[in-house]
Amino acid sequence: MSTHTEDTTTGSTVAATASEQYTVPTGDDAFVCEYCGAPFATEEYHSLHLGLQHGASLTDDQRDAFEAAATDEAEELKLFRLKALGLLVLLYFGLLMTYAVVT
Ligand SMILES: [Zn+2]
Asked: What range(s) does the C2H2-type domain occupy (predicted)?
């Protein structure tokens, strides 16, 4: 499960950056962590924070939300990897063809 560890790291970076950049008013609109009181700009960041920081004490609903948010990020990552892999395969066959023509 090495990919899962990577996703977790990405999520925490995003959440940390968001809470640093935006001053979220702790009103009714903001998503505030019920465990530590940290404010978040979006529900997704909030869900990621809950899963990463308070994974042991989550309710089923909170765990579902975290998994949904984490899956979104994982799919973006997968798409990027797929594109990179496609590029490598193209490059490989390009070189192979060049080699075949030259020799
Ligand atoms: Zn918290």
From this structure: 33-54
The structure tokens listed for 96 are 């192979």
CA 7 / ligand 1 centre spacing (Å): 18
Provide the whole-model pTM.
0.46
CA distances from 59 to 6, 8, 89, 91 (A): 24, 19, 44, 48
Cα(79) to centroid of ligand 1, in Å? 30
Give backbone dihedrals phi and psi of 22, rounded to 5 degrees, phi first.
Answer: -110, 130
pLDDT one-digit tens code per residue, 31-84: 899 899 999 988 899 999 999 999 888 899 999 999 999 998 888 889 999 999
Centre of ligand 1 to C-alpha 29, Å, is 17
Measured in angstroms, how far is the CA atom of residue 54 from the centroid of ligand 1? 6
